[in-house]
């Protein structure tokens, strides 16, 4: 199999991730419950996991990191637990994933929150002039929430500039790092990030079912879930501060430690080396697609401002049919459709096409995987597929 779906889930994982998952599942207990030695060891390793993430993302206080079931969970906590008042406002980008856009639309429906969308173009994926005008003219805006990079076309948003302007105008900034954590430098202090949502299973090379949310001291959220935390068990009230206000119930310690193992692997391998490998393959893929006139590539192709994600369509072909053909006939695994991001497809003009075919590169992708895709696409273009 040629695996080109790393924007969905990275595969394979570093061996240390598999080993950590197995060993911790066999030998450690929940760190917040019980007096067994395995519980105390679990508590120590849990704190080390927070420290690992804090070092990778320059988070000043590891205890402000809460583990969640994934980035979607983290984004929902951040957005739905914010103490909204009717008439408050939030700014988002035009290329958001459902994980961010749906909770924003929910608080708009249910709490009377206004949301504003900063427009997209291929050359300017997030218009800073429009953005600053919104900040100036709508004082009711409380939160700015954007992805760091589009999961559909890979365009990187100027998060440092977005965060700086948010703070200049007294707003909070939430970043969805689902496509950037482990791919791009993420620094919550330098980029003025108040809340950071992280997935475990993408480019941090951890397992599915785990993620994290960093919440700065500038942010006060209501509780999202209530229940046992293992701490303050004699009180009826639920704590609201992280991590106990978010880590409700028995936490997924094996997944947390495997995520930390993946994050350490990223740190030790180095973002520069990871980026160099992925960008070289991205260049090769874009060059090959550019030589096929029947293929339309969406978004810009400047790899300096793009993660290793490419969306494209074949002339007259349904993207889902193409995706199925690529796997069933040629053993190429990627994703086709709307990628849970119809906003992005509306922005790039592919919504009427049924979305796009998306190929996404990871550290374990090899040149032969890219070559196999290009060869298969050329063969498909000579065949008859169902028209749109």
List the helices and strands and how they pair.
Blueprint: E1 2-3, H1 15-27, H2 37-56, E2 65-68, H3 71-80, E3 89-93, H4 98-111, E4 114-118, H5 128-137, E5 141-147, H6 159-168, E6 172-176, E7 195-199, E8 211-215, H7 253-269, H8 271-290, E9 295-297, E10 309-314, H9 319-330, E11 332-333, E12 335-337, H10 342-348, E13 356-360, H11 367-380
Parallel strand pairs: 1-11, 3-4, 3-5, 5-6, 6-7
Antiparallel strand pairs: 2-8, 7-8, 9-10, 10-13, 12-13
Helix pairs in contact: 1-7, 2-7, 3-4, 5-6, 8-11, 9-11
Structure description:
It contains eleven helices and 13 strands. 38% of the residues lie in helices and 15% in strands. It is of the alpha/beta class. The protein is globular, with a radius of gyration of 21 Å. The longest helix has 20 residues, at 37-56. The two termini are 28 Å apart. Helix 1 (15-27) runs antiparallel to helix 7 (253-269), helix 2 (37-56) runs parallel beside helix 7 and helix 3 (71-80) runs parallel beside helix 4. It folds into two domains: 2-10 and 270-380, Alpha-Beta Complex (Aspartate Aminotransferase, domain 1); 15-269, Type I PLP-dependent aspartate aminotransferase-like (Major domain) (Aspartate Aminotransferase, domain 2, 3-Layer(aba) Sandwich). The chain has helices at 15-27, 37-56, 71-80, 98-111, 128-137, 159-168, 253-269, 271-290, 319-330, 342-348, 367-380; strands spanning 2-3, 65-68, 89-93, 114-118, 141-147, 172-176, 195-199, 211-215, 295-297, 309-314, 332-333, 335-337, 356-360. The mean pLDDT is 95. Helix 6 links the parallel strand 5 and strand 6 (172-176). The strands form three sheets. Strands 2-8-7-6-5-3-4 form a seven-stranded mixed sheet, sandwiched between helices.
